[in-house]
Amino acid sequence: MDTTSDTPPRPTTAPPHGPAPSRHGRRLSRRALLGGGVAVLAGTGGSAAWAYDRFLREKVQVSSISAAEQAAGTSESVAAVATDGSVTSTGYTSSTTTITMTSTSTGTGSDTITWYAAEVEVTDATVLRSAFADDEFGQNITEEPSAIAAAHDAVLAINGDYYGFRDTGIEIRNGVIYRDEPARDGLAFYDDGRIEVYDETATGAEQLLAEGVWQTLSFGPAVLLDGAVPDGIEDVEVDTNIGNHSIQGSQPRTAIGVIGDNHLVLLVVDGRDEGYSRGATLPELGEILSGLGCTTGYNLDGGGSSVMIFDGEVVTQPSNGGERATSDILYVAG
C-alpha cells in the first residue's frame, strides 16, 4: 500500500536540545578532541598514525570561503536572494523561488521505503548555492548540516557530495574553483539553469567555469539519464580507498533530479529502519526520481550522511539517530 502526504512527518523521537554553541565553540571542541587523539594513535604504531592523518586530521586548503567568494564576486551579498519569502508546512514561495515539500511511503513491513522530496523552481540559478563546514575547504573538515544551513540562512538544504573524504573530483562551488582532479561522472549546474551529468575526465574546471558552470558535485553515479535508469549502476564504485563503505544495496540516499532548466528535485530516502524505511537501491532511486517527473538523476553521498533540512528543521530521520557531520551542503538561499 502506497501512502503520500503533503506534510513531511517529523521524527517521533529526537535527542534533547540545549542552547546552540557558537560555530567557533563547535570548531574548538572538535579540534581539541582530534588533537587529543594524536597521542593515543601515535602509541599504536605507524598504521594508526596514517589512519589519523588520512581520515581525521584537518587539512585546510582554503581558510575562508567567504573571502574566496568575495574575491570572485560570487558572495551571497550579490546573489539574487529574495527578501519576501513565505513559509508554510508544505513549502515556500518568494519572488525567486517556489518549493513544494512532500513525503511518501511505499510498501509494507520490512519492505517499506520512505522518502522526502522537495520540488524546487527558481528564477535565477544562483539561488541554488553550496556551503562548506566551518567556512573552509579541505579534507576532514566537518560540521552538522543543520549548523551549516543555519549559518547561511538556508530555506532548504541537503547534504552534498562529502568532497572532504577524498582528494579527487572537480569541485566548483558558487562560481569558484576549489579542486580540479577529474576522476568520475560529475553533476554540473550552469548559470542559465541547466543541470547536466558530465564526464570529469573529458574536461577541466577552467573550461567548465568558462562555459558558465556555477556548481559541480562529484559523487554519483547517474541513476537516471534521458528518463531511463542506466544499466550497470549496481556495479559502480565511487571510492576504492580503505575505509570506504559500499554504495550498493538498500541504503539511505540523497539525490538530485532534474525536471527542466531551473526546475529540480532534492530527494532524501531514509533507511536502515525496518518497518519505517529500508532505504533504496540505486535503480530504485532512479525510479523514484522518474516518478517525480525527472529525466536526469544523480546520486550524492548517502548512508548516515543523508539529511534534509527545511525552515531550520531536520525533516528526515537520519540513520545514525541524528545528523552526521559532513563537509558540505547544497541549499536554496531564498
From TrEMBL:
* InterPro entries linked: NAGPA, TAT_signal
According to the record, the segments passing through the membrane are: 32-52
Q: Which range is the signal sequence, renumbered to this chain?
A: none
Q: What broad taxonomic lineage does this protein's source fall under? A: Bacteria, Bacillati, Actinomycetota, Actinomycetes, Micrococcales
Judging by the UniProt lineage, the source's domain of life is Bacteria
Q: What is this protein called?
A: Exopolysaccharide biosynthesis protein
Q: Where is this region: Disordered?
A: 1-25
Q: Which PANTHER family match?
A: N-ACETYLGLUCOSAMINE-1-PHOSPHODIESTER ALPHA-N-ACETYLGLUCOSAMINIDASE (PTHR40446:SF2)
* Domain named Phosphodiester glycosidase: residues: 153-332
Compositionally biased tracts (Pro residues): 8-19
Pfam families in UniProt: NAGPA
Give the record's keywords alphabetically: Membrane, Transmembrane, Transmembrane helix
- Keyword Ribosomal protein part of the UniProt annotation: no
Is Transmembrane helix among this UniProt entry's keywords?
A: yes
